[in-house]
Design goal:
9 helices; alpha/beta; 7-stranded mixed beta sheet; about 220 residues
Length: about 220
Amino acid sequence: MRGSFEHAYQLLTSYFMEVRLVDPNFVFDIQTTSCKDKRFTRCFWCFGSPKKTYKLLRPVVVIDGTFLKGRCRGTLLTGIAIDPSNHIFPLAFSIIDSETTESWTYFMEILGPNFYGYDTRFVVISDRNPIIINVVPKVFPFEIHTFCAFYISNNIKTTLKSTRIVFRMVEEALTSIDFDKHMNAIQNTDPMGLQYILGIPKEIWFNLYIPMSKYVRCHSVLLN
């Protein structure tokens, strides 16, 4: 709140150590350059006792990144879960320079071990960032990776608003009959939009075909 961005980053280690005094289970990691000035490169932190906390939540992790504004710029990566009442539960955070394979791997490799031990598989939800698509199966080889249908609907190559509305009805369909009915409606009004949708396997965005779909809806605004 006060001082420069540079000074705030210099205080990160002290801040994290103070938090750990209150919460011994607090997880954090700070990386700096190897030169004498020890310039900040990236960090990770997670409040609470992750393994104990995660058992109380739905087996779902929503991951995304957002740009940081200000002089220092950078990107904030987040991991979010959903509690039994469908409320948002922040899990973990990371400040990195940009969304690269290395930075996403760094975030997931620290996040993962802190939640391993949960006795069932979990679902990872993300946008269709190609870097995330490549990193998730490497770090979480046994988990289920799905795409947020909200992002898909916003990127459908169409000029018809009705196509996006019907697509969301498709994603929320509870039966194959309803799924086919809404897909046929898109086919009759917007063949180009339909081709874009068919290019994405429904097994990774349509709840009826996703294992463990009872725990999660892929049409989610959590990524925002």
